[in-house]
Amino acid sequence: MNGKLIVIAIGGNSLIEDPKKVTVDAQYRAAEKTAHHIADIIESGNRVVIVHGNGPQVGYILLRSEYARKILHAVPLDSCVADTQGAIGYQLQKALDNEFIKRGLKNRALTVVTQVEVSADDPSFVNPTKPIGSFMTAEDAAEHSASFGWVVKEDAGRGWRRVVPSPKPLSIVELDTIKFLAENGATVIAAGGGGIPVVRDNEGAFWGKEAVIDKDLAAAILAKALDADAFIISTAVEKVCLDYNKPTQRAIDEMTVAEARKYSEEGQFAPGSMLPKIQAIVDYVDSTGKLGMITDPEHISDAMKGLNGTRIVR
Fold first, then answer.
1. Which CATH architecture has domain 1-118+168-228?
2. 215 catalytic, yes or no?
3. How much is the pLDDT for 2?
4. Among residues 149, 155, 157, which one has the least CA distance to residue 131?
5. 100: phi then psi, degrees, rounded to nearest 5
6. Active site residue 3
7. Average pLDDT, stretch 191-203?
8. Which of 11, 12, 194, 292 is catalytic?
């Protein structure tokens, strides 16, 4: 795969190794480890575009806003996504550049604050289901619903949470810029958190929406638009498993698009966890005929060599 363009999607949780240690410095130390594994691929002569998650980090911003609501304005959700694109992009940029310096590479990392177009008619705007932020009591949930117009739902007996739309990504607004940078040797960090959700009005202008986009689905859209040679989703497990967390659990080395769809229909992959990753990889592989992979950060380089991870093929 040397000399190829690879899109790698990493989770926002990959920057949090210990839920009890979530300081900015702790997140940067985790970013260093991820950067080290990605640099192995780049040192082999490949170009890389990175898409990162931001779920925990958006949650922190919302919590700060919650504590400060009596003295400061609330931060709109699209601005939260933009904020985390800049902050996480900075962490990854710094970690990657320091790794390049250590290896004597001339590569540079760049972050593109990225908007992703969605449809104003997406059904999720009528029926929001994506939980974000911290858990609340029923009383607090009712107050927030009345005061801020939040849609709140009870979450599996654990408490109440705000739910927001999660519309389907349609296109990457800054695609030409990302493509230009990648073609000229930059390691590009783009579409962080799935991108800032925007809709286009009748005059062609873009407007932000209070929503979040699944970062794996956005990464698949980006990988297809860039005509990437491979698409890797980095997550918490080395390989995709059937019967996950059961005595019959078994890892999958390779599966076809048809098999992935069959397993999805059988309920093998959890919604909000592995399922959207499988759906994103299937979308990319089925559309392009190229290679999709799912693995954890430390096995990214081995996955590229066919030595680890789960490979999805057409």
1. 3-Layer(aba) Sandwich (3.40)
2. yes
3. 56
4. 155
5. -65, -45
6. no
7. 97
8. 12
**Residue from 215, 239, 292, 308 carrying the catalytic annotation:** 215
More confident residue, 27 or 100: 100
Of the candidates 107, 193, 277, 309, the residue annotated as catalytic is 277
Helices 24-43 and 77-103, packing angle to 10 deg: 50
Q: Among the options 46, 107, 130, 193, which is catalytic?
A: 130
Element of type H or E holding 196: strand 196-200
Beta strands across the sheet bearing 47-52: 109-112, 187-190, 47-52, 5-10, 230-234, 291-295, 310-313, 254-256
Contact 51, 11 (CB under 8 A): no
| Known catalytic residue at 130 | yes
DSSP reduced 3-state for 48: strand
Predicted TM-score of the model (pTM): 0.92
d(CA 166, CA 131): 10
Where in the chain are the domains?
Answer: 1-118+168-228, 129-164, 239-289+299-314
